[in-house]
Write a structure and sequence with these properties.
Number of strands: 3
Helix content: under 10%
Radius of gyration: 27 Å
Structural class: mainly beta
Largest sheet: 3 strands, antiparallel
Length: 93
């Protein structure tokens, strides 16, 4: 279930609520009891960090399709390096 952020337009109290997507938005402020809560637009309340999930996590045997396993797929051609710009000599002797 997503976490939604709300702010009261009367007292400026902020809160977060764990709600289903299908739930109706909250209206009544828990601090001032006025019906002036407004849903805020915010970033996601979670981050995906670490190694993560891979395409081979739940595959076994020949079902594993690794990118560089020598299979039917062709490797991508090497990229040309960007040309280097000449740097001016900053030290004078």
């Amino acid at each position: 279930m997503p976490i939604y952020e709300y702010q009261c337009e009367s007292c400026k109290h902020k809160l977060e609520a764990l709600q289903k997507v299908s739930d109706q938005p909250l209206i009544d402020c828990p601090v001032c009891s006025k019906p002036s809560l407004k849903k805020q637009i915010s970033a996601a309340a979670f981050r995906l960090k670490g190694g993560g999930w891979y395409e081979t996590d739940f595959k076994t045997g020949n079902k594993k399709n690794l990118v560089n396993d020598g299979g039917d797929s062709k490797p991508a051609p090497p990229k040309d390096p960007a040309p280097k710009a000449a740097k001016p000599d900053s030290q004078t002797q």
